[in-house]
Specification:
265 residues, 10 strands, alpha/beta, Rossmann fold, binds adenosine-5'-triphosphate
């Protein structure tokens, strides 16, 4: 039995099917990546899995808890780092975490310790009293992860975690996610359109196209599946979707980086 179990998950927007009969099991302790071009249905999937978007049909269980029947219980079991900004630039890092601690009813006498531990875990202790609008993109992402982990969830969902980060910040984030999985045992479910990220970080990858899962396996299994010598995950992606993801990445990165900068002032 997996920690995330998805059966025939479907989401329609009027007549359009954004997610089409998705079946997927993610095992405890796995780093699982959902890969796909813009519009493939990745965000819609992750929004349903995090209870933010109603399911049209199908069933999801997180740690055996039925998502549509017990959304509040599921929210306690999961953490979520969305694609859009989830911190307040006009507060300090500490204040952002305090707000989340209150939101999740972390007992008052434990709040300071938990926040201190979370800040240390994501290497933001020294910056904890600075306003978040002074943080770099990498620091903001790390703070968002600290927020999402504060109530000690079993599964951490992340929508395109490294979009807009420079290579150094991106590598630091990858190492942080590996540390979270190894040391805390947290299962990580992320979406990405970066092949390198999926290859380096994910134990298994599902390739989504037009709302359907068109391929699934470890990066090495997927590379072996297309019978091309020295296949890269890029080639795998093009093979299954006919799409060149990296060519689309540039515009998205720039627009995301700019909108983050704009929103933080
Ligand atoms: N609120 C909505 N109303 C109508 N259609 C929507 C809505 N949200 C998403 N869609 C459509 O559902 C499909 C899947 O979109 P989704 O955002 O899940 O894709 P994605 O793979 O996450 O893409 P991206 O990489 O751009 O985030 C798209 O065709 C999109 O236009």
């Amino acid at each position: 039995m997996g920690i995330v179990e998805i059966q025939q998950l479907t989401r329609r927007f009027k007549s359009a099917v954004a997610v089409d009969s998705l079946n997927l099991v993610v095992e405890a302790g796995e780093i699982f990546g959902l890969l796909g071009p813009n519009g493939a249905g990745k965000s819609t999937t992750i929004k349903m899995l995090t209870t933010l978007l109603p399911v049209t049909s199908g069933e999801v269980k997180i740690k055996h808890c039925n998502l549509t029947q017990n959304p509040a219980q599921v929210r306690q079991l999961i953490g979520y780092v969305p694609q859009s900004l989830s911190v307040d630039g006009s507060l300090t890092g500490y204040e952002n975490l305090l707000m989340v601690a209150k939101l999740y009813n972390v007992p008052r006498q434990q709040q300071k310790t938990r926040i201190g531990e979370a800040l240390a875990y994501v290497a933001l202790e020294d910056a904890s009293r600075q306003l978040v609008k002074r943080y770099s993109g990498g620091m903001i992402r790390r703070l968002e992860i600290a927020q999402a982990l504060l109530h000690q969830p079993a599964v951490l969902f992340m929508d395109e975690p490294t979009v807009g980060l420079d290579p150094v910040a991106r590598n630091a984030l990858w190492e942080l996610l590996k540390k979270i999985r190894t040391q805390l045992g947290t299962t990580i479910f992320l979406t990405t359109h970066f092949m390198e990220e999926a290859d380096y970080l994910c134990d298994r990858v599902g390739i989504m196209h037009y709302g359907r899962l068109v391929a699934m396996g470890s990066p090495n299994e997927l590379k072996a599946s297309i019978s091309e010598p020295e296949a890269t995950l890029d080639r795998v992606f093009i093979h299954y979707t006919g799409d060149n993801l990296e060519a689309r990445g540039n515009y998205r990165d720039i627009s995301q980086t700019r909108s983050t900068a704009r929103r933080l002032g």
